Amino acid sequence: MASSEQVRIFLDQGISYWAQNNRELFDFHATAKQQIDAIARMEVKAIGHGDYPTQVYIRFERG
Questions:
Q1: Ordered DSSP codes for 6-39
Q2: Number of structural domains, the chain?
Q3: pLDDT tens-digit profile of 8-56?
Q4: pLDDT value, residue 42
Q5: For residues 58 and 8, is the Cβ–Cβ distance under 8 A?
Q6: Which letter does DSSP use for residue 60 in this model?
Q7: 4 exposed, middle or buried (CB, 10 Å; 0-12, 13-18, 19+)?
Q8: Which residue range is the domain that position 28 belongs to?
């Protein structure tokens, strides 16, 4: 991908549906910018609850 291209992934069901593969706690009391930065730095696998179906939306954007 060129530097002006982005892939955006939207996870349906909100945060409570998804789990991650490590035990790091997410600081919901941090500022919005701090939360965005923390999410951008995450190196985890998102794991959905297998009992409930969901949808994942992926959008490719060119700058």
A1: EEEEEETT-GGGEEESS-PPP-TTS-HHHHHHHH
A2: 1
A3: 877 777 666 776 676 777 889 999 889 888 888 877 677 777 777 777 7
A4: 78
A5: yes
A6: E
A7: exposed
A8: 5-62
